[in-house]
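Worked problem 6 (solution included).
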Amino acid sequence: MKIVIADTGALISLGLVDSINLIEKVFGDFFITEAVWNELNTYKNPKFTKENYKRLETKVVKIQSSNRLAMIMDYGESESVILYEELNADFLLIDDNKARFIAESMGVNCIGSLGLLIEAKSKGLISHLKPIFEVWLNNERHFSIKLLNTVLSKVGESLIEK
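Solution. The predicted structure is:
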């Protein structure tokens, strides 16, 4: 069983397609920081349901050390990296490119929501990625169509036309 620390952006993307449960199905247990919880509570999108909030509230863990990374990345992301270190987690689930670059330069093992979905598909937990990607594109999730089409091509699905 793996331990995953999940950041806000990835949780929002997964929540919009009712797929937060895939984190546990693919990897095992996951946790979020107080800063991520606070960011989620300011997120306004009716497709991110009350059930998502109820599920995530039980996953909140307070970091024990001071946030030494808040100057170089957003507060949720910085707390997530610290919690990753404190819990000796296996993965940081994060989509923000800048924060991921910084985290990986610190030796953090990162995966994004795309990587999680590819793994879920390879395990037979989901059948198609394209409908998920279309929901993301229609709900202001910031993935390039080129990247999404590259993934779809690799998994043998039809491409998004836009």
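Discussion: The two ends are 40 Å apart (CA to CA).
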